[in-house]
Automatic annotation (TrEMBL):
Record key words, sorted: Signal
Record flagged with keyword Signal: yes
Signal sequence range: 1-30
Protein name in UniProt: DUF2490 domain-containing protein
Provenance organism: Hymenobacter lapidiphilus
Superkingdom as given in the UniProt entry: Bacteria
């Protein structure tokens, strides 16, 4: 008589594999993907080149700071400040007097809103508007000395131009992304209200020859002045409003 067969032991390897897979599955569910990182802030530098007389008029560019804060995935609040300064001195009469001098400065501030639309993995289209204010001053101090048939003339003068703007700028931008860095360019239509002031003063001192041909220590002073002011609305298109680079910040 044969002995009854022994009961087979249950196979345990499927249970072991399932137990080993549980931690991996939990890790896969809790680990965020790398692309889930979002950046709410953006900080960048801008420059505003001039296309007319590119190599001559871009020796001193308006430079600015641009800050963006994402309010929605495809919308951003933006703040921008711009400054510019240039100066040119001459040494026409360096032996006894300062030469002619010209300097210019400008300050601008803007706040705006931007809508964004992806055109690809790296390319993005932006459009919106900025509201801002700007002020600038250009000063020319000129010096001219010359000998004439009746004496010696000293010409001194100062001319000041002051411009103030309140403006609105609808813009369109195109940006290219490299990791966290954005390279971008903008075009804009600028409209607003501008005030222009011109103030010119000149002083001419003439030293007439004495009968013996000498020049007296004191001369006769002649002065003149002119003031001009203009104000009104304006509209202009800036093909390249600005170019720049920015970086994403958390």
């Amino acid at each position: 008589m044969k002995a009854p067969p022994r009961p087979r032991a249950p196979r345990r390897w499927p249970l072991l594999l399932a137990a080993a897979a549980l931690p991996l599955a939990a890790t896969a569910q809790t680990a965020p993907p790398d692309t889930a990182t979002t950046y709410k802030h953006q900080l960048g530098l801008t420059a505003s080149p001039v296309l007319d007389g590119f190599f001559k008029n871009n020796r001193s560019l308006p430079l600015g700071l641009l800050y963006k804060r994402q309010t929605k995935p495809n919308q951003a609040l933006r703040v921008r400040v711009v400054g510019q300064y240039s100066r040119r001195d001459t040494t026409d009469f360096a032996t006894f007097d300062k030469g002619s001098t010209r300097y210019f400065w400008r300050a601008e501030a803007y706040v705006g809103y931007e809508w964004q639309k992806a055109l690809g993995r790296r390319v993005q289209l932006g459009y919106g508007a900025e509201l801002g204010a700007a002020t600038s001053q250009r000063v020319s101090k000129f010096v001219g000395d010359k000998l004439t048939g009746i004496g010696f003339e000293q010409d001194r003068g100062r001319e000041t131009d002051i411009v103030r703007n309140v403006l609105l700028r609808p813009f369109v931008s195109l940006s290219y992304r490299l990791g966290r860095v954005h390279l971008f360019a903008e075009t804009a239509v600028e409209t607003g209200y501008r005030t222009f002031e011109n103030d010119r003063k000149t002083y001419l001192t003439i030293f007439y020859y004495e009968p013996d041909g000498s020049i007296p220590p004191q001369g006769q002073l002649q002065s003149s002045s002119r003031y001009f002011r203009n104000r009104g609305p304006y509209l202009t298109w800036r093909p390249v409003q600005l170019i720049g680079a920015s970086i994403d910040l958390k």
